[in-house]
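subagent[fold] <- orchestrator: predict structure for attached chain, return tokens only, no commentary.
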Amino acid sequence: MAFYKALENVELKKYSEASPSNFKVIFYSKGLFKSTKLFDKEIKAKVSTYFEDDSKSSLMISKEFSHLDADILFVRDFDNKKSAYKRGGWLASLFLALDKYGVESANIYVDTTQQFKDKNFVFELVKTAEKATYRYTDTNPNTKKETTLRNVEVCVEKSSAALKRSVELGLNVGRGANTARNLGNRPANHATPTYIADQIKALAKEIGGFKVKVLEEEDMEKLGMGSLLSVSRGSVEPAKLVTMEYQGGKKGGKPVVLVGKGVTFDTGGISLKPGAKMDEMKWDMSGAGSVIGTMCAVAASKIPVNLVCAVGLTENMPAGNATKPGDVVTSMSGQTIEI
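subagent[fold] -> orchestrator:
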């Protein structure tokens, strides 16, 4: 598994550089739409009349039934009176619509929305595009087919270095999130502690910029990590402790430290969990997945920060040698813990 890539290409382009035949997405905001140079008076009048009905949220115009050179989806602008967190759902619905229409390449004219005034909007849109296009298909041939969207051109009248950076950051954060999701969605007999540790090393080699160190159970025994080791006692899968280190900030500067729980499957051990929905315990490593995805996004984006990430990878299974309720183990700090 590599640094997950749902979209093949995402670029910032000026209007004059945009691919003319691509499916177009235009946001409808009364004031901005009136002043746009993208359409003639006839189109402006027809679209504005359509959106006078407040119940209308979108309008699709086919090039086959108009004089336009491409299919266009007009989307009513986000209502700023609504809670800010709902903007993410509004953006996600846009990409669901593109999937519905079977769009492979889309030009999204981001400066046609009032949201463009928010410096984080382009970042959020690109991040959402990458996340919304994600599908897990690695081990299940019956999974919903992959989306058709492959290329996105983020179109603006005037480009800038800040906008290009927003596109880059949004794409890398989206890919980091999808990398975490893909690790979590893999079945527990695939995403073992050993598999995930190997994937971290492969990601470090692919992306570059961060170092990886893997501690085996023998190393942890020497360091007195009795607490972590107590979890894997009943499993045939050996535990791993993986640390990742990225130095993008000042030399010697204090790092941000993230720690992720990585129980690749948690049966509850001797205290067995109920069988119903136990399959969902494969996601008990999602904390580790999130930390791994964060490191990938930070390193790929070359963020100026020092970051250290640690993930404890283990499987909790019942067995004759599994840790029992009431057992006492000793942690690396020397503290004793009654299970």
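orchestrator: received. Logging for downstream: The chain is about 35% helix and 20% strand. The first helix runs from residue 30 to 35.
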